[in-house]
Specification:
By secondary structure, the chain is an all-alpha fold. It has helices at 2-25, 31-51, 61-88, 91-98, 101-112, 119-136, 148-171, 177-200, 210-237, 240-243, 249-261, 268-285. It contains 12 helices and no strands.
Length: 294
């Protein structure tokens, strides 16, 4: 349980830190091109690790298709929709809508994995969700008709990420997390690469400076290969309905880093919201559940 919590919280913390870098990189490299590059780098890193560990059992052909499908859902459809939503909506709307992912994880965990929807788990998600709302301040959101397409894309992104996270726990019963993550990256590239070709016609890649290159390497190695392995590992070790709470470290870390590096003020709402998020995570961890792996 504790090890799974460390993995999940670490992954979400890395993703919370990547937005500062992504905002700069996206000025030069458009979204789907950046996503494709991240997946390529992540695949190379994990591919090397898998190659250096020949004892890992590689999936049969029908299992590979299943793992690739999980990647299409998570890295192709979900992350792709998140890019579309962010482009066509607002940052506040995006943070609010995507914070629904843990609730979707809870629902899919009950439907697919038959995990119990206990009052404590529901309360933990509700408490942490309230913390996100307090930090973001929904009064700043703008759900007008101008952002409808973007908001819809963000909602679908949150739903499909919930589905992806539960499917990862399901397939991790049979395969090592490194194999699952590598195949998921490859599946995501099928979708992201196709979208990149279409995107390039209207948004070509700009000049690649040393700073942009370093940022891309960080996103590919740390935010993709490392963070996604940590996230998938967390869902292999902990019930999906509990691991869902680790997602809330992402907006928390993002808000704290914005205050530290971008000069944003530590408001009372940030302190209160942070306390609620931490409380929700701690509440979920008080329920001891058996792990799939030691």
């Amino acid at each position: 349980m504790i090890r799974g919590a460390i993995y999940g919280l670490s992954a979400a913390a890395i993703w919370g830190s990547m937005y500062v870098i992504s905002d700069v990189i996206l000025l030069t490299i458009p979204p789907f091109a950046l996503l494709t590059v991240r997946l390529v780098i992540g695949s190379l890193v994990l591919g090397l690790i898998v190659w250096r560990n020949p004892e890992l059992r590689f999936p049969a052909r029908q299992d590979i298709l299943r793992l690739l499908g999980v990647g299409v859902v998570g890295f192709g459809i979900s992350v792709g929709l998140q890019f579309v939503g962010t482009d066509k909506s607002t940052a506040v709307n995006g943070a609010l809508v995507t914070s629904a992912s843990p609730a979707f994880i809870l629902v899919f965990a009950a439907l697919i994995l038959r995990e119990k929807l206990t009052l404590r788990r529901i309360s933990a998600v509700a408490l942490a969700s309230l913390g996100v709302v307090v930090i973001i301040n929904p009064l700043q959101a703008n759900f007008s008709s101008d952002t409808f397409v973007g908001d819809l894309a963000l909602a679908l992104a949150a739903l499909t990420w919930g589905l992806y996270s539960v499917l990862v726990r399901q397939v991790s019963k049979d395969f090592d997390t490194r194999i699952v993550t590598l195949c998921a990256f490859l599946g995501g590239m099928i979708f992201a690469g196709s979208a990149m070709v279409v995107e390039h016609a209207t948004r070509p890649i700009g000049a690649i400076t040393p700073g942009v290159l370093l940022g891309v390497l960080y996103l590919g190695i740390i935010s993709t290969a490392v963070a996604m392995w940590l996230w998938n590992r967390a869902f292999a070790l902990v019930d999906a309905s509990i691991a869902a709470l680790f997602f809330f470290a992402q907006p928390l870390v993002g808000a704290l880093l914005s205050a530290l590096f971008l000069g944003q003020r530590m408001t009372p709402g940030l302190w209160v919201g942070s306390t609620l998020i931490v409380g929700g995570v701690l509440l979920s961890l008080t329920t001891s559940q058996p792990a799939l792996e030691a």
